[in-house]
Amino acid sequence: MALSLSAASHSLCSSSTTRVSLPPAAVSSSSSSPSSPSLVSFSSSHSLSPLRSLASSSSLFPHSPSLVQRKHTNRGSSNTVSPPTRAAASDAAQLKSAKEDIKVLLRTKFCHPILVRLGWHDAGTYNKNIEEWPQRGGANGSLRFEPELKHAANAGLVNALKLIEPIKEKYSNISYADLFQLASATAVEEAGGPEIPMKYGRVDVSAPEQCPEEGRLPDAGPPSPADHLREVFYRMGLNDKEIVALSGAHTLGRSRPDRSGWGKPETKYTKAGPGEPGGQSWTVKWLKFDNSYFKDIKEKRDEDLLVLPTDAALFEDPSFKNYAEKYAEDPAAFFKDYAEAHAKLSNLGAKFDPPEGIVIDNGSVQGEKFVAAKYSTQKKELSDSMKKKIRAEYEAIGGSPDKPLPTNYFLNIIIAISVLVLLFTFLGNNNSSDYSGF
To answer: Which class would CATH give 92-210?
Structure first.
C-alpha cells in the first residue's frame, strides 16, 4: 500500500538451531518483482536459498484449519465419534506468549518495518462496498497464499512470512490473520511507538481461491497522489485524518530501488545497516517510531531522505496538510491518532471468533471504578470483611462501582471526621481534668 513500509534489512539465521523448514511449496523472493513502481513492494534485501515453485493451492505455512476441531472418542464404543468441538480462532494464552517471541525476533533481526507492512497488506485489501466474507478482503490471513503473495505490491513479503513461520509452528492455535496483526502492532510498540488497542480472534480463509484480486493496494507515484490515496483508503472506510496518521508509520523502514523502483541504493543513514546495508529511508533513525517523518518531509532539507509523491501530497493537499502540520508539531497527538487508525485498519474485513474478539492486554479503565484496597492507609490488602464494610459505607452515601463519587465527597467526609475527633479529644481532656480534681 502507498502507506506501506519498506522492510528493514535483516538476514535469516544460518545456524542449524534456527533452521526454517519450508514445505515444498515455498515462494521464492524473486517471484514477485513489481511491474510498476509501488511503495508497497519494498522488501527485505537478504537473499533466500532457491525455493521450489508453489503449487497453486499451497501456502507458505503448512495448512491447518483456522478453527481448531478435535474429535472425542466415546469410551463405550471405539466407533462412536462426537460432533467436532468448535474453538475460538486463536488461543489467548498462546497470543500472549507469541507476542513475547515476536519481541525477541524484533530485537535480533531489526525487522520492525517488514512486520508492520505484513499486517497492513493483509488488512489493506478491504472493500467496504462488499458485504460477504471473505470476498470483502481485509485481515483474514489470505496473504500467506501464493496468488496474493505474487501481487506486485507484496514483493518481498515472503521474507516476513519466513521470519514468523517458527512462531506460527510453535503456537499452532493462533490464526495467521491474528499472527500478522500481532506482529505488526508489536513492531510499532517495540520501535517506541504507541500501544495499539488491539483485539484478536480473526478467522482465516482456508484456500488460495479466497484471495482478493490484485490492485486493491495503492501506488507510490500515481498521477494525482492525493486523489489516489482517497480513492483507495475511502474504499476501506478510512478518512483524511487516518490516512495522514497511518502515513506517519513511514518513520520506520527504507525503500530499495531494486524492489520498488524508488529510492537510492544507499545513503549515509543506511550504508551501515543494521541488517544488510542499503536502501533509502524516510527518516534518519529509521528503526525509531516517532513523528520525525512529518518534520523531515516538511523541511525537505536532506537529499538522503526519501520523499515520495504520496508523501509530498500530505503537505500539498489542504485537508491532509492540516493533520500533517499538527503531527509535525505535536508527537502526542500523532501517537494518539496513529494508535486508533492502526487498530481500525487491523480489524478491517475481519470475521472474529468469538464475535467480540479477544483482548490480551489490559485496556484503560473508563472512569474511576471502586477498588477497596485503593483507599487503604496501608500497603497490605484489606480483608474481605473490611472491603465489604467500606463498600457498604461507600454505597450508603451514593457511590457505586459504576458511579464513583467526586473527590470532594471524600474530602468533606475526612474533614468532618477530623473535626469530630478534635472536638471529642478536646472535650475528653477537659472532662478528665475535672474528674481528677475530686
So the answer is: mainly alpha
